[in-house]
Amino acid sequence: MDRCDGSRARGAWERLDACLKRSLRRFSSSRSLGAPRCVFEEIATAVLGLAEDRCGGSRARGAWERLDAYLKRSLRRFSSSRSLGASTCVFEEIVVAERVQCLLANRSVRASLCPVELRLSVCPYSTSGRRSQPTADSVSKMKIAVEGCMHGDLDNVYATLLHLQEVERIKIDLLICCGDFQAVRNETDLESLAVPPMYRTMNSFWKYYSGEKAAPFPTIFIGGNHEASNYLWELYYGGWVAPQIFFLGFAGVVRFGNVRIGGLSGIYNSHHYYSGHHEKLPYTDQDIRSIYQVREYDVKKLMQVQEPIDIFLSHDWPRGITDYGNSQNLLRRKHFFEQEIEKGTLGNPAARDLMAKLRPSYWFSAHLHCKFSALVQHGENGPTTKFLALDKCLPGRRFLQVIEIESETGPHSLQYDEEWLAITKKFNPIFPRTEARPNFSDAKLNMEECRLFVKNKLQMRGRKPFEFVRTAPCHKSSRSAADNFPSGHCRNPQTEALLELLGLQYCLD
């Protein structure tokens, strides 16, 4: 406690100290989301009481520094506590800390009294116990790097993570990307990229596709609204776009070790949501801008998932997510979101419904090119989803976050998900290849029978995805090498092998 001049200042700090101890005791004994928010509001109130006493100068600064350290130390202890379960302190700018800052700003506390930003540090986090946890003697921490919009800049993202590994002396186990990956192999792929011609550049993915470079980490990504759609369509069900780099599909679920990861590619547009996947090569200008729009068919498949999801990815934000975070801070950075937030139209309503149904431990998004965090409580006693949106890869932008999840001891590998393949088998007979809305009542296959079929197939073949195969020439390839590949739509061998495994017809022509 800082002994600022005057009895009133001393009294204020005594009240603050008592408030912190009382509130943090309540925090440690509570499992609900509501309590921590109330806790930090109480802390903010005590801080405001101190500010009203107008203590200032170097001692006040020291007091703020000690308060900041006290909060960080206490919350680190809580985040590592097994008794607390799913801790609320996960992200660097988690919503509870932002609420304190917002309250302080709204009460016009003088800047001279707040020289230290009240912020929570990244804390180790254990996912909630909704999935089978590793045994005590096999437990380890899986470090997963999350990236916002890649925009084809694999070289810089990988270099950043390699530098982080060296400086922090940690090992990144997996990189996941929330869309706009831009898996562009050659100049032909650029023609399917929904960006103005002046922005169509090769970037660096082709180096990893050709084998000139190798991805230093296993990488999983979803599609956004700026993609080489002709290539991703070959791998509609998911697959390797390059060695070590896996596309989750237009919708999909996979496992990495014992961590279950799901995702939905594209962005929402009400004009195309109920349509089928009708776009065919050669794409028209309209096709290039509709092929990446989210479809009801893919959302319906994800809605069938029953087993817990640890991490879910979407490119655009779930609609209404700003209600669960510091929207005022967001609007200070992105003021042009205000009208959409007020009208309730910002974000993807299908993603909102999926979050309510799947209730994943984490949900990551990108698209809007800013960092934003939120906590979503599912029911009074339900689980909590930690939401984080990240920026695009540019200097000075917040485009990366590293999280830790308890997992089995590695090495970890990517595997097919049994339940998801069963859902794929059930719904593939009504795959919508025209503009007409699919009739979901025609998906008559029994889910239990599909699950048993897939289980038997995976037991015989194994769960490892089919191997990567190049289906188009690389950038800078010779003319003779390019002549060895077909033009137009290519049946990717990975997709053909997966459909054969599931006993399904090929529908992507």
Automatic annotation (TrEMBL):
Keyword Lipoprotein: no
Subcellular location: Nucleus
GO molecular function: metal ion binding; RNA lariat debranching enzyme activity
Gene Ontology CC: nucleus
InterPro entries linked to this entry: Calcineurin-like_PHP (IPR004843), DBR1_C (IPR007708), Dbr1_N (IPR041816), Metallo-depent_PP-like (IPR029052)
Keywords: Hydrolase, Iron, Manganese, Metal-binding, mRNA processing, Nucleus, Zinc
Pfam families: DBR1, Metallophos
Signal peptide: none
Gene Ontology BP annotations: mRNA splicing, via spliceosome
Cofactor: Mn(2+); Zn(2+); Fe(2+)
Occurrences of domain Lariat debranching enzyme C-terminal (ranges): 376-508
Record has Hydrolase as a keyword: yes
Record family assignment: Belongs to the lariat debranching enzyme family.
Protein name, as recorded: Lariat debranching enzyme
Species this chain originates from: Striga hermonthica
